[in-house]
Amino acid sequence: MISRDLEKVRVIIKEATDLDIVYAYDDLVFPEHAAFLIQFDDNTPNNYFCYFHEDCLPDSASEILANLAQSFKKYHDSLVPKGSFTLEQKGEEIEIKFL
User: Fold this and answer.
1) What is the pLDDT of residue 93?
2) Could you tell me the pTM of the whole model?
3) Which of 23, 61, 65 lies closest to 48, judged by CA?
4) How many CB atoms lie within 10 A of CB 85?
């Protein structure tokens, strides 16, 4: 079984953005407002991926990414921007599409 340190990611997100985690599923972590999400890199333990919601303004995304990258670095981790995503309601479920 893969071990993922959700608490560390929660602390990093809180420090960088002052947002709390509202949902975590498998390798994905969703902070409040879903402007971005963090994905664990199961191949490299100290590496994470960041995706921004397609509606996130570019200037906001740049600022958030810079803050997150700085906080991840403080914990000797790296953050790689990977692109964008959308959320779509499918009945009672939410579908995530990576763009």
Assistant:
1) 87
2) 0.92
3) 65
4) 19
